[in-house]
DNA sequence: CTACGACCTGTAGCGGCTACAGGTGCAAGG
DNA sequence: CCTTGCACCTGTAGCCGCTACAGGTCGTAG
């Protein structure tokens, strides 16, 4: 392509799939790029940066709506960004606590399970409310 | 109702919503119960126990397909149950590690954020690849 | 000029529910 | 007996963040 990145190139650079890039465009997270004569999308450096921003936000566990808000704050707006970050930290910690609870409960329930045991499986007994 | 629990009663006892009970029936996780003359579902004790089994499995983080397998193993089958438990423990730990990674990264990125700061927000800088 | 891959649009599916809309059953109070 | 009002019924669509097609078109290297 004369100038601009194809969707494949920008997706590879952003570490996401081509379908994901199109999806982000569909939901308005990435702006619709100009097209080649034949209708292929042509991205610029700014788009690649924006996609990177999204990917980084995802890696921090932000939802796409929150990333949309963060993108709007990109110039200044640290106060609101900080608020979003605090909420996101709290959400991550809630999820972690829930997983830890599950892990402890499951480890406890499965303790004493063995392949040779035919009946009275501790895990199945727990699930049955025993 | 003469004999049997209404869907509302069985849902309350199982700690899930009425819609969830109907959903479980639709996907074949709960058997279709007999109906009253007017078409209302009438559940027995066995159904309530089965619903409890499912809820307990969900509380341990199992997916509905895995719970379906566990239900089939209910009489004996400790060996396979143990295998499922081990896989589920590993899955919980993977998710926890991912959340921990996000938490550390986010806490680092948001450190130094403050409401008064107008530009150069550490979090936004991180997201922009700074 | 042909072959082949990368691209295009549109739609449906995943898991595990949740939320309607628009209708019917049931039980209790008057 | 009749009304009220809640609980129930079916069916469908939506949530999130993709992913996976089908069936076609474009771009480029040989």
TrEMBL record, chains A, B:
Transmembrane segments: none annotated. GO terms for molecular function: DNA binding; DNA-binding transcription factor activity. Residues 4-73 form the HTH merR-type domain. It comes from the Bacteria. The keyword DNA-binding applies. Signal peptide: none annotated. The keyword Signal does not apply. Keywords: DNA-binding, Transcription, Transcription regulation. This is MerR family DNA-binding transcriptional regulator. It comes from Marinimicrococcus flavescens.
């Amino acid at each position: 392509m004369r100038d601009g990145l194809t969707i494949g190139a920008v997706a590879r650079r952003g570490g996401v799939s081509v379908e994901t890039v199109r999806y982000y465009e569909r939901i308005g997270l990435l702006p619709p790029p100009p097209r080649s004569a034949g209708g292929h999308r042509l991205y610029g450096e700014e788009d690649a940066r924006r996609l990177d921003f999204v990917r980084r936000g995802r890696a921090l566990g932000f939802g796409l709506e929150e990333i949309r808000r963060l993108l709007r704050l990109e110039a200044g707006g640290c106060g609101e960004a900080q608020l979003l970050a605090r909420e996101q930290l709290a959400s991550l910690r809630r999820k972690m606590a829930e997983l830890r609870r599950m892990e402890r409960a499951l480890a406890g329930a499965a303790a004493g399970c063995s392949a040779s045991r035919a009946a009275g499986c501790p895990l199945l007994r727990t699930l049955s409310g025993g």
